[in-house]
Amino acid sequence: MLALLHTSPVHVPVFDALRDAAHPGLQLRHHVDAGLLERARREGPEAVTDAVRGVLRRAVGEGARAVLCTCSTIGAVAEGAAGQAGVPVLRVDRPMASAAVAAGPRVVVLAALESTLAPTAALIEEEARRVGRAVRLRSRLVEGAWARFEAGDSEGFLRLVAEAADAVTGADVIVLAQASMAPAREAARTRIPVLASPVPGLAAGAEAARLGHLGPGVHAGE
Fold it and tell me: Of 73, 5, 8, which is closest to residue 43 (Cα–Cα)?
């Protein structure tokens, strides 16, 4: 069984659908706590360390063989608690970051939430160091998008993200920092590759749950 740690309930049907399409038979158990993101935004991601550890202990107690954190803001905190969890703990955006580094040195990160910008940039730089590649990273906040998301206007939210992607120039790859932004890939018309985290992230989580450890090509944080 793979447990998923979400900070918004909107991710539950998304990951269920991805499981049904690509990983039939994989049992998912969702843990949703919007308060983790709210506190991380106010006080910084490290403020939720104990709470995240509590979620991981509960997930393992319920039989999880791996845990996937789908929130980019607290992903590093979740990975850092893996040693105490006793099972693999993955952040959904690490496979995407690895793919971004492989795509070329000019990486543009788009985020709807400001608290996601620094963790995503740090992750991409970490992946670049791991493989010995240089990256020229630019990060951009999609103004107004998060307010649309919070208001339940997913169409407006995704339109703003797609428009921001279409406005990017001089890049080898565009990274959508948050899992909720992924559907904007379909609406974007840019010729620059646009990467999103849910599909590769769930694939890595499924493999870790099957093996009971991190599979080949999956790298946890230091």
Answer: 73
